[in-house]
Amino acid sequence: MRTRVARWGHSLAVRIPKPLAEATGLRPGEEVILEVGGEGLVLRPLRLDDLLEAITEANRHEEVDWGPATGREA
C-alpha cells in the first residue's frame, strides 16, 4: 500500500489507510513508538514493556506505608 508524506506544521505526517489501521488494531489517539529500522521507520503500538523499560532508580519512588490492613486485601 502506498501513501505520501505530508507537512504538518514543522513536522511531517503519514496518513495510515483504514485497512492497515484495522489490521494492526490502531485507533485514533493511541500512542505509538517510532524507531529507525533496517530500511526505514518502524511504527508500533506502545506496550507495557516499553513503559516498564523506562523505570530507573532515579524515577522510582519509595514504598508508601498506608498502615495496617483493614480488610481482606492483604
TrEMBL record:
Q: Which of UniProt's keywords are assigned here?
A: DNA-binding
* Alphabetized InterPro entries for the sequence: Antitox_PemI-like, SpoVT-AbrB_dom, SpoVT-AbrB_sf
SpoVT-AbrB domain residues? 6-51
- A Pfam family assignment: MazE_antitoxin
Matching entries from SUPFAM superfamilies are given as: AbrB/MazE/MraZ-like (SSF89447)
What Gene3D superfamilies would the database entry show?
A: 2.10.260.10
Q: Please give one Gene Ontology molecular function term for this protein.
A: toxin sequestering activity
What is the protein's name according to its record? AbrB/MazE/SpoVT family DNA-binding domain-containing protein
Q: Which organism is it from?
A: Thermus scotoductus
